Amino acid sequence: MPLNDSIIDEYQNLGVTVLRNIISQKWIKKLQLGIKKNFQNPSKYKCVYEKNKDKELFYDDYCNWQRIDEYKNFFFESDIAKIVSLLMLSKKVNIFHEHVLIKESGSTKKTPWHQDQSYYCVNGKDNCSLWIPLDPIEQSVCPEFIRGSHNWNKQFLPTKFFGESYEHHDKEFEKIPDIEKNREKYDIISWNLELGDAIAFNFATVHGAPGNKKV
After folding, report:
1. What is the DSSP letter of 74?
2. Are residues 205 and 118 in contact, defined by beta-carbon separation less than 8 angstroms?
3. What digits encode the pLDDT tens for the residues 159-187?
4. Which residues of 17-35 are buried (b: 16+ CB within 10 A; e: fewer)?
5. Structural contact between residues 202 and 127, judged by C-beta atoms closer than 8 angstroms
6. Angle, nearest 10°, between helix axes 80-88 and 69-77?
7. What DSSP letter does each residue of 92-111 carry, written as one string?
8. Which residues pair with 102 in a beta bridge?
9. Which of 124, 69, 123, 118 is nearest to 98 (CA)?
10. I want to staple 101 with a disulfide (CB 3.0 to 4.6 A). Which of 13, 28, 60, 211 is the partner?
11. Are 173 and 156 in contact (CB under 8 A)?
């Protein structure tokens, strides 16, 4: 689908934008099936961040697209690569990886403020992540993004989702500021999302997420 210039400009200038109704219900259902397959047979990378007794509340897995057809087919057979190329103003798109995060109802753990690029083995600014919800999302549980933070030209020390930072060995990284205690200083945005919507953001855009306390 074509994107209007204002959406592309917002992505380029602010590092994040919301895309409404860009993914068909057919692909939503296929991705839901893919996630079911994923966690019936998770990879060695699966990690659980929060549990209540034996129930897993917050967990993730990644780098499974080559073994899960629903993920692979979404990359190559939907229009998602065309959408990303328009946002990046690029003629070519390379797949980096997929990352599936699950926060079940009742999860209280927040995803810490971070930028994705610090975790990745890539440099450069021509990149794009898509956060695609597979349930309707209220703004109170939606990931939050700091608009314009991709232009800070900073690389922040990665933070483990358990809460603490990684050891600081590389001088190119600096510790991320305490955003949560100084929220008024930042241009923070989030949205209500329906199935078919997605959030597009630059690898360097700083973001975090609340828990999912709603039961």
Report:
1. H
2. no
3. 777 656 666 667 788 999 999 999 999 99
4. bbbeebbeeebbebbeebb
5. yes
6. 60
7. -------EEEEE-TTB-PPE
8. 59
9. 69
10. 60
11. yes
**Tokens 């990931």, residue located:** 143
Q: Which two tokens stand for residue 21?
A: 């109704």
Length of the chain: 215
Instruction: Quote helix, strand, coil % in the chain, to nearest 5.
Output: 30, 25, 50
Q: Per DSSP, what are the bridge partners of residue 111?
A: 209
Residue with tokens 């209540």: 52
The token duo for 192 is 């209500």
pTM of the model: 0.93
Tokens read off for 180: 């949560």
The enclosing H or E element of 13 equals: helix 5-14
Q: What is the mean pLDDT of residues 133-149?
A: 97
Spatial distance between the Cα atoms of 197 and 28, rounded to a whole number of angstroms:
10
Residue written as token pair 């998770």:
42
Q: The sheet that has 111-114: what strands, in order across it? A: 111-114, 207-209, 144-146, 188-189
